[in-house]
Structure to design on (343 residues):
């Protein structure tokens, strides 16, 4: 009886035949060089297990240097808003077979360049960037090595894919709401000077005043520096005015926390002594007392859209740049001083 022929070492072609896909698709799944549908990824990985195929060590080495990784550079990863953006990015990237490598820019241009440089050193396939300013230097740096950049949270003056919320009209709507219940002394605590989100929300505040025939008063625009401490200082500034405001629009969630704490510390109640609305919501905003009236940014959707743009750009570098604006949602609760909407 003839001896059994030695078993052939499984090849990538064997995996492709078992999975019913092309060899190139198997290669993209294993080396993470192109986005592949999650269902196809599962079929290919099952075929790898069934055939006993062992990927080439060179491919594994390439994978470990960053292929199949999306870089994420943003500030304040501990901020609840950005935490939700990260969740959306990580979930959709993982479903497409990509890992996510994060770097905190601290909203500083120099740190941002260092963060992007480190991500590029790790040979990421794309970078999702919440720019500290216009992001120009970081974007140019990545462009030199043909790594696509997707801007999120704030629009930048560059021909790249971008996704952010509309900041202007929703802020005007917050002013409309306060004016509709009789407030005319409406102040705004603004974010860090120079950020596009700060400028756009301030434009929205002024727009809201104009369309409600309320004269703008520059002393009612207080810089909160996008921080709890800055917002507390802004509250002190506003309360020292000869005619303090009766209502506040606060430019982000961190400043909202600082503003509410500062008002409490001086014995003022929200909304009894000061109505307050916020651009930015929290998962736990309805646990505040009073519950917070806010514009809720669709953080998960922003993360998901950013990943979709990154995968499309990796697969088709010649696509024209896209700019997507997502609208926030008005959450009418109690801090504005009027009965909340029925849910």
């Amino acid at each position: 009886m003839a001896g059994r022929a030695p078993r052939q070492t499984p090849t990538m072609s064997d995996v492709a035949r078992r999975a019913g896909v092309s060899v190139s698709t198997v290669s993209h799944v294993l080396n993470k060089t192109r986005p592949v549908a999650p269902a196809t990824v599962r079929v290919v990985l099952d075929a790898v297990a069934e055939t006993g195929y062992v990927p080439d060590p060179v491919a594994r080495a390439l994978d470990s240097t960053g292929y199949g990784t999306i870089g994420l550079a943003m500030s304040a990863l501990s901020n609840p808003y950005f935490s939700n953006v990260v969740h959306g990015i990580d979930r959709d990237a993982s479903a497409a077979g990509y890992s996510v490598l994060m770097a905190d820019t601290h909203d500083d241009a120099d740190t941002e360049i260092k963060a992007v440089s480190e991500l590029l050193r790790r040979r990421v396939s794309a970078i999702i960037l919440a720019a500290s300013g216009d992001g120009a230097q970081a974007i140019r740096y990545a462009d030199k090595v043909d790594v696509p950049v997707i801007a999120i949270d704030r629009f930048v003056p560059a021909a790249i894919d971008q996704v952010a919320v509309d900041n202007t009209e929703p802020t005007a709507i917050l002013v409309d709401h306060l004016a509709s219940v009789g407030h005319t002394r409406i102040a705004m605590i603004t974010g860090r000077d120079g950020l596009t989100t700060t400028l756009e929300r301030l434009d929205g505040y002024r727009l809201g005043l104009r369309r409600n025939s309320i004269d703008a008063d520059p002393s009612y625009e207080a810089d909160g520096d996008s921080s709890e401490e800055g917002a507390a200082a802004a509250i002190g500034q506003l309360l020292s005015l000869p005619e303090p405001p009766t209502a506040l629009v606060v430019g982000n969630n961190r400043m909202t926390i600082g503003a509410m704490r500062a008002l409490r510390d001086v014995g003022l109640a929200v909304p009894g002594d000061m109505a307050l609305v916020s651009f930015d919501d929290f998962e736990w905003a309805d646990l505040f007392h009073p519950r917070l009236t806010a514009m809720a940014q669709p953080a998960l959707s922003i993360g998901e859209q950013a990943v979709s743009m990154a995968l499309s750009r990796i697969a088709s570098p010649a696509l024209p740049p896209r700019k997507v604006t997502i609208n926030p949602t008005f959450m009418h609760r109690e801090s504005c001083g009027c009965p909340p909407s029925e849910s």
The radius of gyration is 25 Å. Confidence is low (pLDDT under 50) at residues 1-7, 57-66. Residues 17 and 72 are 36 Å apart (CA to CA). The first strand starts at residue 69 and ends at 74.
